[in-house]
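Hey, can you fold this one?
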Amino acid sequence: MKPIHKIATSATVAVTATLGFSVNALAATFNPSEVQYHKLIVAGDPNGTPPDSPSNRVDPNTTTSPFAGVGSLFMDLGGGSGFLCTGATISSTHILTAGHCLDEDDNGTADFLPNKVRFNLNFGSDLSHTITASALNINPDYTGFLNPTVNDDIAIITLSEALPDGVPIYDLFRNPVSEGETFTMVGYGTTGNGIDGLTGGASFNVKRVGYNNADLFDVDDEGSGVNEVFYYDFDGPDPSTNLIGGLTLGNDIEGSIGPGDSGGPSFVIKNGSMFLAGVNTFEFTTSDEQIFGTFGTGGGGILVSSYTDWIDSIVKPKSVPEPSSVVGTLMLGALGTGSWLKRKQKKGA
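Sure. Predicted structure:
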């Protein structure tokens, strides 16, 4: 899974950028002054033990898959070109994704009209449903990918109609993520393997699943001290590929992300239930010589728990009391009933 995937007719072009690295925890561990970023599932060694391949990571397009609520996104630039990203359902009419998926020129604002953004479901069949957006909301603190940081790269797409019955709706993980927490990452992006890197194209109807651990975190760039960004490394069987965390989860388990996986979910499992804990937004290398998607590279994204208030303000806006109810409350108070009528403000569905 990596970042945004530009699609122009049959060709695909991944966007890359360089950033002076400022994450103290990472710098203390493997000490590069710069890393190469891809905006955003890559499988293990095809000859490893056990052997692995991208086809082993494909999640079938059934109605019973726990990942049936993860869909592909198409941002239409016109003329047969646009962006492919990934998004996940967080209500019957809302999709959580990456901010840069909606921001072509990296200035922090959406560059598409809502009717040029489409959410594609593969619910029981390939491309079973396509729903156009009615509104786009990028987090207000997002200033563009690597402009100057990777923080706040999160967005919500409001759909023009409700999702079909039975599509999973994912609850947000509202607690801080612990170091070493295992993430289940899902996306529609470019795939490959840890030896050769990225070898296969992105697809609107083929989603893959991989796993990795949240190894390190970076804090809010606005100064609150709260963790906003997570990082992981893509470990191979050779411990020399271990950059920042523990050893591999297993050749047929550990994964990374590729272009088109941007905006896809990272889930955690708690007490048998699955929660949406992260939004996948980037991968990185530590040198110009490294090939994206190979063992020894890494990736990361945005921690959902740091943005739940903002998400709720869009998905679950507080209701406003009806004028008649307000008047009724004031009258009761004036009559000296000895008690206040307290309206419990609901968070809307």
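The first strand starts at residue 5 and ends at 8. Let me know if you want another pass with a different chain boundary.
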